[in-house]
């Protein structure tokens, strides 16, 4: 079984799962290790959820449980940082504010709108909305270098009005190539996020064709995450994802300890 390097617990505002229940599920699944990556979306649009983690409380419990389970499963301390181009000072400061093992940079907000909500798609076609999301991903990647992997680069297709209809690498080739080349130039990894299977898309985020293209362009840093917010979603469809990644040309995936990559055979 693979390490799951994208997990949320009740320290994230959209999860109810006690951290210890997630660790116990990881042990039951026989995972070698897990990394918690709680949400920290600075300046998230006002709404029910604020996506801000109490970092000191999170770090304390995570380190205590890491010790408690040290003989059974490796537990790592990470963060999923929400990227927005105007947070030029705040995000790099956050990245060095604790001794993180692993940092994901994710785009959950584009033009101050949440693609999870309808208003992001109003007044434009799905193609235009998705293309705009990718432009914002690229702008964030040009702005920031302070994280290890880029989370779910096609997050927007989980929530669009017609989901992944008419969506492929080919349909957005130019902008996706720019994103992948920027990741590679900057030495930032690409995440393969299995939540797409959970959302019924029939593929991970990003899709196989994008993963294959990343490999073709020379991309090597690939992290695996379920984006689980509850124990039953941990390592969701990982065996299927592992086979798919091998078919895309990958032999290794990547974990991080104290922000240093280690490559593990798929
Ligand atoms: N960022 C969440 C989804 C979301 N819920 C956005 C409300 N807004 C997925 O981890
Ligand atoms: Zn979430
Ligand atoms: Zn995310
Ligand atoms: Zn997440």
Automatic annotation (TrEMBL):
InterPro entries linked to this entry: Histidinol_P_phosphatase_HisJ, PHP_dom, Pol/His_phosphatase_N, Pol/histidinol_Pase-like
Q: Which Pfam families match?
A: PHP
Please give the family membership noted in the entry: Belongs to the PHP hydrolase family. HisK subfamily.
Looking at the record, the residues that make up the Polymerase/histidinol phosphatase N-terminal domain are 3-85
Q: Spell out the Gene3D superfamilies in the cross-references.
A: Metal-dependent hydrolases
What pathway annotation does it carry?
Amino-acid biosynthesis; L-histidine biosynthesis; L-histidine from 5-phospho-alpha-D-ribose 1-diphosphate: step 8/9
Q: What is its EC number?
A: 3.1.3.15
- Sorted UniProt keywords: Amino-acid biosynthesis, Histidine biosynthesis, Hydrolase
Superkingdom of origin = Bacteria
Query: Which enzyme type, at the first EC level?
Result: hydrolase
- Signal peptide per UniProt: none
Q: Which reaction does it catalyse?
A: L-histidinol phosphate + H2O = L-histidinol + phosphate
Descriptive protein name: Histidinol-phosphatase
Q: Which NCBIfam families match?
A: hisJ_fam
């Amino acid at each position: 079984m693979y390490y799951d390097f994208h997990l949320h617990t009740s320290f994230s505002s959209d999860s109810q799962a006690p951290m210890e229940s997630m660790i116990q599920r990881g042990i039951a699944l026989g995972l070698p290790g897990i990394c918690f990556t709680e949400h920290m979306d600075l300046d998230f649009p006002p709404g029910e959820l604020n996506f801000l983690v109490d970092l000191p409380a999170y770090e304390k419990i995570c380190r205590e449980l890491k010790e408690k389970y040290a003989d059974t499963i490796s537990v790592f301390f990470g963060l999923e940082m929400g990227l927005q181009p105007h947070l030029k000072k705040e995000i790099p400061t956050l990245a060095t504010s604790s001794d993180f093992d692993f940092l994901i940079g994710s785009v959950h907000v584009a033009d101050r709108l949440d693609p999870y909500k309808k208003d992001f798609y109003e007044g434009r076609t799905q193609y235009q909305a998705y293309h705009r999301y990718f432009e914002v991903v690229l702008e964030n990647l040009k702005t920031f270098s302070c994280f290890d992997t880029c989370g779910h680069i096609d997050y927007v297709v989980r929530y669009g009005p017609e989901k992944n209809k008419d969506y492929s690498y080919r349909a957005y080739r130019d902008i996706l190539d720019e994103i992948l080349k920027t990741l590679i130039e900057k030495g930032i990894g690409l995440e393969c996020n299995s939540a797409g299977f959970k959302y019924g898309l029939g593929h991970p985020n990003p899709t196989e064709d994008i993963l294959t293209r990343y490999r073709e362009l020379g991309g090597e840093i690939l992290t695996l995450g379920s984006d689980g917010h509850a124990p039953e979603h941990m390592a969701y469809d990982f065996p299927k994802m592992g086979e798919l990644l091998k078919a895309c040309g990958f032999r290794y995936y990547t974990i991080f300890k104290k922000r240093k990559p280690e490559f593990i055979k798929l």
